[in-house]
Amino acid sequence: MSLLNTYSIKIAGPAGAGIKSSGLLLAKILIAHGQNVRDYSEYPSLVRGGHNTYQLTFSSQTIFTVHQKIDLFFALAPNHWQQHQSEFTKKTLVIGPDAQISLPDHKFATNTVCLGIVAYIFNLDQKICHHQISLAYSDSSNLDAFDFGYQFAKQSKLKQIKIIKNFKLKIKNSLYDGNEAYGWGFIKGGGKFFAAYPMTPASGSLHFLAQKQVDHQLTVIHPEDEIAAASMVAGAAYTGVKSATGTSGGGFALMTETISFCGVANLGTVFYLVSRPGPATGLPTWTSQGDLLFAINAGHGEFPKIVLAPGDQQESFDLSQLSLNLAAKYSLPVILISDKFISESSASIPDLSVKKIKSVQPQRSFLMANSYEHDQFGYSTESSQVVNQNVKKRLALTKKLALILPKPIIYGPQTATKLIISWGSTKSTILETLTLKKDNDFAFLHFQTLWPINPEIKKLINNFKKIIVIENNATSQLTTLLKSQFDFNPDQILLKFDGRPFFPEELLKKL
Asked: What is the pTM of this model?
């Protein structure tokens, strides 16, 4: 089952063949034709060789994520399409070596030749395509490669598809992956200091913000390790600067001592945690929601912290700036937990660079910041009375935050009897699945705030007869979390934990 006027294209080949660069260029070409685009890429941890893929789904309608079933497949080298046959339908057109259609010998970059074939099949405007290619490449040979592909498709009399083009959109969209969206949220939220040690899949945020240093008066540091990065942002927060660091699970493990320090010293810092499968190195270029409980319990001792989780690229922007403002207002650590599926996948959304956000200034009194238990002036103390007061104060703030932080968002009819509960990147797949399913008996509760948990949520959940939890981990960590807060017994739990995200076709069958 698929949405009307919705199509999926996939490119596969070895690392170094320009698969993602051509895929992103195709996405921008489609956006220029008024299409909504979502993409996803898979790659091993290799500089050359291996098996890489880039796929996108596009439509003139609203879409939320990529589809698993492919309409047009390109293999840039031999033996790269065979392992994807389960994703093909009877109508899938496969182009590449030893496939349905093979390209003739040519002197051009095959990845750009494929763009010309796509342009012909979907009847795209050649001038718009040429313009986008010229913006991406200064070498005119890429235009020649595009034209070669277009003429090849025309001479081969490939079946054309007429898509609905919309050149008069009131709101112009741009293409952002989750790391870029997070970066724009950091800038618009008044962030000024970012320190991070590169770690896939969070590295894109470091690279993006480094490119924006001059234009937005940022200081971006690549220190010797994650411990140094966390310590630097804590120091910056002490001086009253809105600061953040970014990493993945292994790097976050090294930062947990600093998180505790920020908790006791009242330092408003943001930790951008982009999850990948663990333990240890795990699957460094794949996706997972396995760090939820780690994030909530990060740091020794009991102290207030906030854990937020974006569900898509737009929320990566929204919660990025919100996390900075919350850290500044309440002088505590905020953890923004994302994953590879969001951070390295792109979506066509309104231009983030022109957004205007109200920025909250840090509430620093510039007293001493001490890792020891201390009194109201910052002096170390072991007084029983002061310790009791401090602990109660921290617990009170946690209870207060539970009531004022973003509440879960409910999608679908209030009359539904079945409720899907999830968090993070599963949001887009669940929404796409419910669009395909066209079933008014399902609603969806999407958590943005994972800690502290608002106890009033239990009343909302009780309105539904059947509860279904969906997560990209092996132990349903959200279920464990909710059980720790109130009586919670879901009727069904759907999990996926092989490093790949859920696709809507998969959930459609399971539901």
From this structure: 0.96
